[in-house]
Amino acid sequence: MTNIFIGGAWPYANGSLHLGRLASLLPGDVLARYFRAKGEQVLYVSGSDCHGTPVAVQAIQEGVSPGDIADRYHGEFVECFEQLGFTYDLYTRTDQAFHHEVVRELFLKLLDNGHLYRKTVLQTYCETDRRFLPDRYVEGDCPVCGSRARGDQCDACSTMLDPSDLGNRTCKICGNQPVERPTEHFYVSLSHFQDELANELESVQGWRDNAVQMTRRYLEEGLQDRAATRIWPGAWMCPFQASRIRKFMSGSKRSAATYPPASSGPRKRAAAGSPFGARVRARLRLIMYTGRTIFRFIR
Asked: Which among 4, 130, 164, 262 could bridge 270 via Cys, Cβ 3.0 to 4.6 Å?
């Protein structure tokens, strides 16, 4: 019997699920059913992303707190998945204390191992709304293809961006042109893994050609260090007094939150005595998916 861990995509709790969003979540459930039918030991985990730009934007539009938005749609998601027959062993949410603890632990380990560093940068600031703007709150023209893009990437050409790269920038909240102000953040040293990942890519098996080609493209362009914190209300506190208003980036939280305890969340099909409740020392097949893209790992 093989241990199969399936980490599902985490839908933002900022609006009702529509058919497109549900379709992007189905691959994980199909895989879970398949491996269970084969007699494998499966743990299928996901949850609602209760932080991040989409939730905050919806809260601003409705004049309520991000927590109100997250509570409303998380409850709706759970009911929807139950009615549709999704077979999550655990469906949880990112604003639980357990996830906060895991992300802080991950942050400190990365820092201790030299994979995080402080950097002063110019960050986009809206003088109208009087706040620093996360990448996704900035929109403008992509410098590569000219399409309208967000401050983190261009969906038209898949180029990874920073807000400063965009032309004709506007604030997503009010539509006015933002300025730049200096601020300090922690950055993840992705560039440290350039050679290791390039070597790993040459031996991968089972990836779709588009996944291989896009990964090769990013490596050929050179991995860029990315911010791990942002200044934003309602997010998770960075574990440093000097950075008390610096919060974790949403992507970091979702990645860490994929590994939950077997006894938390609204759905608890995984027994406390499951081999997944502690560190798995046997061979583990790890499957992660986001939307219709599935990445398979063997440990």
From this structure: 262
